[in-house]
Design goal:
This protein has about 450 residues and is of the alpha/beta class. The chain contains twelve helices and eight strands. The strands form two sheets. Strands 3, 4, 5, 6, 7 and 8 form a six-stranded mixed β-sheet that branches. A two-stranded antiparallel ribbon has the order 1-2. A hairpin with a 6-residue loop joins strand 1 and strand 2. Helix 4 crosses helix 11. The longest helix has about 35 residues. It is extended, with a radius of gyration of 31 Å. The N and C termini lie far apart (about 65 Å). The mean pLDDT is about 90.
């Protein structure tokens, strides 16, 4: 190679200096934007600058946007109110003449009323063993008498479960809703104890959900930080198409994950790149492509035109998702799909085994090499999800709840949170109303396992 002269060397160095200055300015602007975003309030949410010409809010006109809907006429009417004409016209003050009668329907919440029930419990002793025996009504939530004779009813406790665990309201606001909505006065401590009793009744159903998640053909997993007694714990979520199980545990390791999913789980495990998931050696793994694509976009945003490696990986992953969609819509033959899939495998291997020069690219490449066998699994298994969206959707409400009231103060509260959340989320998946099911559990004298059918799941 001929040695460059002094003029060429100076010109090359000046070009490199100019490139470094441009790159430095771009990174400075990106850092300033990141710092401003970190200091920005959580709400209202905004993506930098608003659109210059935003669309009109509300439903779009025309048949292309779906069938118009309205509130249906109620099948049963409890009260009919006759609304006569006024004696005089409100505009000119003259008399009016009736031309007909039309109907308007209004669905209203009834006047709130607290129902206070006294159970006259008969008690006695067995003639044979002389043990005490007392009667029990199906509407009773507990056989306790004496100092615990005054209790909350099953529907009140079930409503508190929906407000506190399902909607994330703190105990104080839950008590306020019960008092202002129904006139039911209850303390925060009373609600806490009632929800713990509800969790005890639901514990057998929770264990049944854990068994079902272990036997599920495909499970999506995720975890997030959670405070218990002001200490950092972790909320795990394992979700399938039929069941969702939450578990608040003191660690983020394989021991905690296997405590719910089982060490010998042999189904499909869709997860992010957290290393402990790879220890499920009997499972078939699919790493979340949304996480990888997000990492590619961030690296491209930081490095700009110099981010050739993440841009190449991004193109391969997007091509894989497009190929999956073509197969699902029947736009490609099975042979053509297999050929295209093989080409993607080759392109991905070539991109990974060329060692990048920059440290960030090498770290990303090393991560992809560790996850190599789990990147394109969804192309070999029709119907397998390519992202862990199901678990992230299940854990997102808990992230909001964590911002509102932090976590749980005791281990008992964490167990109550896990059990009731699993029950409520699984009911949502099956389109079942949780209120009557919770009432049924609470009024049952013996522990029972509620079975949620699979045909109504979504």
């Amino acid at each position: 190679m001929p040695q460059e002269n002094e003029t060429e060397k100076i010109a090359r160095l000046e070009r490199e200096i100019q490139e470094l200055k441009t790159e430095n300015e771009r990174l400075r602007r990106a850092l300033e934007e990141a710092l401003r975003t970190a200091k920005r309030q959580a709400a209202p949410f905004s993506r930098r600058h608003p659109k210059a010409h935003p669309g009109t809010p509300g439903r779009k006109a025309g048949k292309a946007y779906g069938r118009p809907c309205r509130r249906p006429i109620p099948e049963r009417v409890e009260e009919v109110v006759d609304v006569p004409l006024p004696e005089r016209c409100p505009h000119c003050g003259r008399g009016v003449e009736e031309s007909g009668v039309v109907s308007q329907y209004q669905t209203e919440i009834p006047e709130p009323r607290v129902e206070r029930i006294e159970f006259r419990i008969h008690w006695g002793h067995c003639r044979s063993c002389r043990r005490p025996v007392q009667g029990r009504h199906p509407r009773q939530t507990s056989p306790a008498v004496g100092s615990a004779a005054s209790q909350l009813g099953a529907r009140a406790i079930a409503m508190a479960v929906l407000l506190n665990k399902g909607l994330g309201l703190p105990y104080g606001k839950t008590a306020a809703v019960l008092e202002q909505g129904w006139g039911l006065r209850v303390s925060r401590g009373g609600l806490c104890q009632a929800l713990q009793r509800m969790a005890q009744k639901a514990a057998p159903t929770y264990q049944a959900l854990v068994k079902r998640i272990r036997a599920a053909p495909s499970v999506t997993a995720d975890e997030t930080g959670w405070k218990v007694a002001a200490q950092l714990w972790w909320m795990w979520v394992f979700s399938s198409a039929q069941v969702t199980v939450y578990a608040i545990q003191p660690g983020r390791g394989f021991e905690q994950a296997a405590g719910v999913l089982g060490q010998d789980f042999h189904g499909f495990l869709v997860r992010d790149g957290w290393s402990i998931y790879r220890q499920f050696v009997h499972a078939f793994h699919q790493t979340c492509l949304a996480h990888l694509l997000r990492r590619c976009r961030e690296m491209i945003q930081v490095r700009g035109t110099r981010a050739q490696f993440p841009a190449r990986i991004q193109a391969i992953l997007q091509a894989a998702l497009a190929l999956r969609d073509r197969r699902e819509h029947g736009h490609i033959s099975e042979h053509g799909f297999e050929v295209a899939r093989g080409k993607l495998e080759v392109h991905l291997d070539r991109a990974l085994y060329r060692r990048p020069r920059s440290r960030e690219n090498r770290r990303f490449a090393d991560h992809l090499l560790r996850e190599r066998d789990a990147i394109l699994t969804f192309l070999y298994c029709p119907g397998l999800e390519a992202t862990n969206w199901r678990a992230e959707q299940a854990i997102r409400p808990m992230v909001v709840t964590r911002k509102v009231w932090g976590g749980n103060r005791t281990l008992s509260g964490a167990q109550t949170q896990s059990i009731l959340l699993s029950f409520l989320q699984t009911c949502r998946q099956h389109n079942r109303h949780a209120l009557p099911l919770l009432t049924q559990l609470l009024c049952s004298p013996q522990p029972q396992i509620l079975s949620l059918p699979t045909r109504h799941s979504r």
